[in-house]
Amino acid sequence: MSILKATGNDLDSLAELLDLYRVFYQQKSNINGAKEFIKDRLSNEESVIFIAFDENNPIGFVQLYPSFSSVSLKRTWILNDLYVMESVRGKGFGEKLIKKAISFAADTGAKGILLETNVENITAQKLYEKIGFTKEKNYFYFFSI
Predict the structure, then answer these.
(1) Considering 8, 50, 67, 109, which has the largest number of Cβ atoms within 10 A of its Cβ?
(2) Gene3D superfamilies under this entry (predicted)?
């Protein structure tokens, strides 16, 4: 397995993976929309994406968005998307993708990585805790449109 920082050359593979990820979250398949979305993120340098390959086959990705902490005067990263193809789950690819994201965050001098997951996604929660993430107990998160 290899994990590489994604470039425009990975656009087709990433679009397929993003489409599968979205379908996992009960969204309609939209491969063209996924491709355009990824293209915009990469060309505008609005996110960092690492893509995992198993024997040259793309099998997963992790996408990080930059943010900043005024209090700590440091960059933070938001781990917004993590996906591993269903056919290869349970083989450690998700853990390796997250560890790559953590290493990248450390290399960029970031304060840390923030992520969120559905309350019902127990499998992901166990993985995050295994790697060293902790559930936030001191803050509430609010959302508005």
Answers:
(1) 50
(2) 3.40.630.30
Query: What are the structure tokens assigned to 12, written together?
Result: 């087709």
Report in angstroms the alpha-carbon separations of 55 from 1, 75, 78. 6, 34, 29
The span from the CA of 101 to the CA of 16, in Å, is 21
What are 62's two structure tokens? 């992790």
| Tens digits of residue pLDDT in 73-98 | 999 999 999 999 999 999 999 999 99
User: Cα–Cα distance between 81 and 126 in angstroms, integer?
Assistant: 16
Model-wide pTM > 0.85: yes
Spatial CA neighbour of 49 closest among 88, 39, 30: 39
Angle at 39 (CA atoms; ends 16, 44), nearest 5 degrees: 150
